Amino acid sequence: MRVTIFGTGYVGLVTGTCLAEVGNDVVCVDIDAEKIARLERGEIPIYEPGLEPLVRANRASGHLRFTTDAAEAVAHAQLIFIAVGTPPDEDGSADLSHVLAVARTVGRTLNRYAVVVNKSTVPVGTADSVRATITAELVARGSEVTFDVVSNPEFLKEGDAVQDCLRPDRIIIGADSARAVEMLKALYAPFNRNHERIVLMDVRSAELTKYAANAMLATKISFMNEIANIAEQVGADVELVRRGIGSDPRIGYHFIYPGAGYGGSCFPKDVKALEYTARQHGHEPRLLAAVEAVNAAQKRKLFALVERHFGADLSGRTIALWGLAFKPNTDDMREAPSRTLLEQLWQAGAKVRAYDPEAGAETARLYGERDDLVLCGQYAALEGADALVIVTEWKAFRSPDFERIRSQLKQPVVFDGRNIFEPKAVEEAGLAYYGIGRGRSV
Ligand code: UGA
C-alpha cells in the first residue's frame, strides 16, 4: 500500500521503516529540512538498535523515501499517518499544535479518499478535532473529497522499538468506518500472524487505551517504589518482595522494578496529560496524582542516600555516575532521573564524573561546558571520586570489577539506584552498599 508518515521522530521513523520492510511504499515527511537531509544521507538522528540497517535496506529497495514536500507526500498516500510530537503544555495538557498543523496540511492538499491514521499520543477527542480541521480546509477550497480518521496508538518502547513494531503484542484500531478498518487490517496483516492481535474499538476508546496503558505501567513503578521505601524503613529487602509478588500471574514480573524513578518522553508526559483530561471533565484523578508525586520524590532518592552517607554539604566531593540516559539502550535524557541527581549534586557543591555508553553527547548538549562535570570512560569516572552512583542499568554495569572500583574510589561506597548488584557481593569486595529498598543495608 502507499503510506505517508508525517513526523520522523521515534514513532514515525520506526513505523515508516517497519511498514516499508513488509513491502509498502512509504514516504516519511518532516518540516525539519536538516533532519530530512540527514536521513537522505543515511544518517539516523536517534540511537535505536537495529534501525539503521533497516532504513538503509529499505531506502536502497526504494520502499522508503524522505521528503519535506508535504503536498507530494499527501498525493502519494492511501494512508496518511500522523506521528508528530505532543509535548506537554505548561499546564500539563498535551500540545496539539503539531497534530493540527498536519491536519491543516492534509485538508489543503488532499485530492482523493485517504485514511488519516493518528499514531501520536493524543487526548480523547483529538480525532474529532483532526476531522473538523481537515473538513474546514476542504470546505474552504470547495473540495468534496472524502476521508476517514482513525486512532491507531503506538506502544513501542525506546531501545526495543524495531522489535515492538515488527512484533506488536496488540494493534489497536479505533475507527467508525468499515472502509478504513479494512484498509488498516490489510496494512497490518503481515504483523498479525499466528494469533489475532487486532483489537477493534471506537475512536475515543482507542485514544484512552494509549493513556491507560502508560498510566498503568507508571502506577506499577510508583507502587513498587513506595513498597521499596517501606521495605527500607522496616528492614526488608524489596528485591525479595518483588520476586515474591511477581510469581502471582495476576501481578506478574514485568514493570515492578523499583529504582530511581521513571523518566522518558512518555510516562511523565502521559500521566500529566491524563490527569489534565480527567480534571477537564470534572473528575479528580487521585491515583494518578499520587503516581506522579511518588515518582517526583523517587527521583530525589539517590541524592537523599548520598546525603545520608556524606552529609548535606558536598563541597570538595566528587561523585562518579554510571548511566545518564533515562533507561538503557537509548541516548534519550528526557526527564531522566540522572538529571535530577546531577542538579542536586551540583547544588550541594559536588563535582561529577559521569559515563554513559550512549548519552554522553546529549548530556554535553544539555549542560554545556562546566567545571563540575567531566564526561569520561566507565572506569575513568572513578578517578578521584568519593563514591559511585549507578543511575541507569546498562548491561555493561552489571558485572563490574569491584576490586578496581574499591581501589579507585577515595571512599569505598556504591549507591545502586537500579538494584543491579547483590549487596553481599559488593560488601564482600570491601565496599559499602546502598540500594533502593534494601532495608538490610540501611
Ligand atoms: C513507554 C512504554 O513502555 C511503551 O509501551 C510506550 O509505547 C511508550 O512509553 C510510549 O508511550 O511511547 P519508554 O518510555 O520507551 O516506553 O520506556 P519504558 O521502557 O517503559 O521505561 C520508562 C521508564 O520506567 C524508565 O525510566 C525506566 O527506567 C522505568 N522503569 C521501567 C522502572 O523504573 N521500573 C520498571 O520496572 C520498568
UniProtKB/TrEMBL annotation:
<dbReference type="InterPro" id="IPR014027">
    <property type="entry name" value="UDP-Glc/GDP-Man_DH_C"/>
</dbReference>
<dbReference type="InterPro" id="IPR036291">
    <property type="entry name" value="NAD(P)-bd_dom_sf"/>
</dbReference>
<dbReference type="InterPro" id="IPR008927">
    <property type="entry name" value="6-PGluconate_DH-like_C_sf"/>
</dbReference>
<dbReference type="InterPro" id="IPR001732">
    <property type="entry name" value="UDP-Glc/GDP-Man_DH_N"/>
</dbReference>
<dbReference type="Pfam" id="PF00984">
    <property type="entry name" value="UDPG_MGDP_dh"/>
</dbReference>
<comment type="pathway">
    <text>Nucleotide-sugar biosynthesis; UDP-alpha-D-glucuronate biosynthesis; UDP-alpha-D-glucuronate from UDP-alpha-D-glucose: step 1/1.</text>
</comment>
<dbReference type="GO" id="GO:0016491">
    <property type="term" value="F:oxidoreductase activity"/>
</dbReference>
<feature type="domain" description="UDP-glucose/GDP-mannose dehydrogenase C-terminal">
    <location>
        <begin position="320"/>
        <end position="423"/>
    </location>
</feature>
<dbReference type="InterPro" id="IPR028357">
    <property type="entry name" value="UDPglc_DH_bac"/>
</dbReference>
<protein>
    <recommendedName>
        <fullName>UDP-glucose 6-dehydrogenase</fullName>
        <ecNumber>1.1.1.22</ecNumber>
    </recommendedName>
</protein>
<dbReference type="InterPro" id="IPR017476">
    <property type="entry name" value="UDP-Glc/GDP-Man"/>
</dbReference>
<keyword id="KW-0560">Oxidoreductase</keyword>
<dbReference type="InterPro" id="IPR036220">
    <property type="entry name" value="UDP-Glc/GDP-Man_DH_C_sf"/>
</dbReference>
<dbReference type="InterPro" id="IPR014026">
    <property type="entry name" value="UDP-Glc/GDP-Man_DH_dimer"/>
</dbReference>
<comment type="similarity">
    <text>Belongs to the UDP-glucose/GDP-mannose dehydrogenase family.</text>
</comment>
<dbReference type="Pfam" id="PF03720">
    <property type="entry name" value="UDPG_MGDP_dh_C"/>
</dbReference>
<dbReference type="Pfam" id="PF03721">
    <property type="entry name" value="UDPG_MGDP_dh_N"/>
</dbReference>
<keyword id="KW-0520">NAD</keyword>
